Amino acid sequence: MRPLVIAVLFLFLSAGGSRLQAQSLTNTAWKFYVDALHDTLTMHIGADTSFCTSSSGELIVRSIWRQAKDTVRINDLDGAYPCKDGEGVYRYTIDGDWLNFILVTDPCNQRADALNVKFRRTTEMKK
């Protein structure tokens, strides 16, 4: 009886622990609307870079992307609207097909404003 109780307790704790870990954003894509551009953009997230494209396919911004647990660090490289003011740090949450970024620190107000929306998962991936 005792080994059964220990096994059930172990399974319960293992299941609870796995729910606490952040989901990886690697190789995902998310759509979001940017009011300032009057356009729906798609954010494509790879292993160490991300890039956003407009609905017409124009590159809006390409960034170095580093994820650790539920936090991402974003440094823009190029594109039509890069933020060259420094690194943005955000926590994120995923609820089903919805992604939200929570500002930790970002010297670039435009990036902070653009990421202050709900993102919807999409299967539209580009390389």
Q: What is the highest CATH level, the class?
A: Mainly Beta
Strand-residue proportion: over 45%
Number of strands: 8
Our measurement of the CA-to-CA distance between the termini, rounded to an integer number of angstroms, reads 54 Å
Name the helicity range: 10-25%
Strand order of the largest sheet: 1-2-3-4-5-6-7-8
Number of domain modules: 1
Shape: globular
Radius of gyration: 18 Å
| Mean of pLDDT | 85
From the 3D structure, determine the CATH topology: Lipocalin
Low-confidence stretches: 3-20
- The number of helical runs is 2
Question: Which class do the helix and strand fractions yield?
Answer: alpha+beta
CATH architecture label name: Beta Barrel
Order of helices and strands: HEEEEEEEHE
Largest sheet: 8 strands, antiparallel, barrel
Condensed summary:
Residues 1-22 form the signal peptide. By secondary structure, this protein is α+β, with helices and mostly antiparallel strands.
Polypeptide structure, described:
Keywords: Signal. Residues 1-22 form the signal peptide. By secondary structure, the chain is an alpha+beta fold. It has one domain: Lipocalin (Beta Barrel), CATH 2.40.128. The chain is built from 2 helices and 8 strands, in the order αβββββββαβ. It has an 8-stranded antiparallel barrel. The longest helix is centred in the N-terminal third of the chain and has 19 residues, at 2-20. The chain is globular and about 30 Å long.
